[in-house]
């Protein structure tokens, strides 16, 4: 059976009334892995039925994230891709069978659901924190994916799956960070928000900031194309940043240059949100400029599931600003080209369209 047959065998009725035999069949699908050193490999894999408490997803699309660039260069032992949207294709024992056909996005941290953090709905802080989907267990650069049912988050009617992927890292993570940041800023301290780094995360911050009371948003990035994207979305763009000039700073580049800039730019009494991901150590020099500045530093990670409803609301309000962020699309076999364009800076945020028919359903 070739891969097209595999895709066809996974087509779903979406009624949730299928017999269990049809529900849990094995399907074939294509998968792209990242062996490292900027290479990708495609193969075909057999996807068995989901286990207890799990669902199998027919992946519609997976967006690339800046953090994935590390995996493109270093390689990954699991299937990468962690900004995933799709349709539930099969349900495991204990999962309501009528979830089959549900349009979902994938929340990436495994969580236990019963620890003190989960009891407070702070799923991203789960004390029994498990694997991250797309990092330590298989992610979205493939046609099918099995995840815990609790990690498959229903997408509201009226939101297309290829917009819904932006509710994860781009809006969900930035909104959670902004929520933490706004908690430690008084009204006066919300005068100027500086966003350092205008990749997808930084642009997400520019888009979400007004909803958290930040109406004077400035942005800085060495790439003029990215800076123009921030300007188009309402930010004042800066070519250089004065010391102590910003009441709040969001570091969204994940680079040490960006972190150093944020540290210098924050005004006394202000706050810095360290949002960008990077694998290099960051050493803070013990200079008076740092030691004698009275300021807050916040690090946030992902977002709690409980904030999803607010993120959907934000997405409806700021939909126009989000448009165009996923500026280039590739099919599954184009994962390598997508990474090359992403690393070269010619694509803001690539989208891998795994199953165009599943996106087409939104338009019908
Ligand atoms: Zn990400
Ligand atoms: Zn937990």
From TrEMBL:
UniProt lineage: Bacteria, Bacillati, Actinomycetota, Actinomycetes, Jiangellales
One example GO MF annotation: oxidoreductase activity
Pfam families recorded: ADH_N (PF08240)
PROSITE patterns, per the entry: ADH_ZINC (PS00059)
SUPFAM superfamilies: GroES-like, NAD(P)-binding Rossmann-fold domains
Residue ranges the record marks as coiled coil: none
Keyword Oxidoreductase: yes
Keyword set includes Metal-binding: yes
Keywords of this entry: Metal-binding, Oxidoreductase, Zinc
Segments of skewed composition (Low complexity): 1-21
Identification of the protein by name: Alcohol dehydrogenase
Cofactors required: Zn(2+)
Domain Alcohol dehydrogenase-like N-terminal residues, every copy: 51-157
Region (Disordered): 1-25
Highest taxon in the source lineage: Bacteria
Bilayer-crossing regions: none
């Amino acid at each position: 059976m070739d891969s097209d047959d595999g895709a066809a065998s996974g087509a779903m009725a979406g009624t949730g009334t299928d017999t269990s035999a049809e529900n849990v069949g094995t399907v074939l699908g294509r998968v792209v892995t990242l062996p490292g050193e900027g290479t990708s490999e495609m193969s075909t894999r057999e996807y068995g039925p989901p286990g207890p408490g799990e669902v199998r997803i027919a992946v519609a699309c997976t967006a690339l994230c800046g953090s994935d660039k590390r995996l493109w260069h270093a390689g990954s032992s699991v299937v990468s891709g962690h900004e995933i949207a799709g349709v539930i294709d099969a349900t495991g024992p204990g999962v309501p069978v009528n979830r089959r056909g549900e349009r979902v996005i994938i929340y990436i941290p495994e969580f236990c659901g019963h620890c003190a953090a989960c009891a407070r709905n702070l799923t991203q802080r789960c004390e029994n924190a498990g694997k991250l989907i797309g990092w330590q267990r298989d992610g979205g650069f493939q046609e099918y994916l099995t995840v815990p049912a609790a990690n498959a988050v229903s997408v509201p009617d009226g939101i297309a799956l290829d917009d819904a992927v932006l509710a994860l890292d781009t809006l969900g993570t930035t909104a959670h960070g902004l929520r933490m940041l706004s908690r430690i800023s008084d009204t006066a301290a919300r005068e100027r928000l500086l966003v350092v780094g205008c990749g997808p995360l930084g642009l997400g911050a520019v888009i979400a900031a007004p909803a958290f009371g930040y109406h004077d948003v400035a942005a800085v990035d060495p790439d003029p194309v990215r800076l123009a994207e921030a300007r188009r979305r309402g930010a004042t763009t800066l070519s250089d940043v004065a010391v102590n000039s910003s009441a709040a700073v969001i570091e969204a580049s994940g680079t040490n240059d960006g972190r150093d800039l944020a540290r210098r730019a924050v005004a006394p009494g202000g706050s810095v949100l360290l949002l960008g991901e990077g694998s290099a150590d960051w050493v803070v020099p013990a200079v008076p400029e740092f030691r004698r500045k009275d300021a807050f530093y916040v690090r946030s990670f992902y977002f709690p599931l409980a904030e999803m409803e607010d993120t959907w609301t934000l997405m409806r309000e700021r939909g126009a600003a989000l448009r165009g962020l996923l500026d280039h699309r590739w099919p599954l076999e184009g994962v390598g080209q997508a990474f090359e364009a992403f690393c070269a800076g010619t694509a803001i945020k690539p989208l891998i369209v795994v199953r165009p028919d599943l996106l087409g359903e939104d338009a019908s």
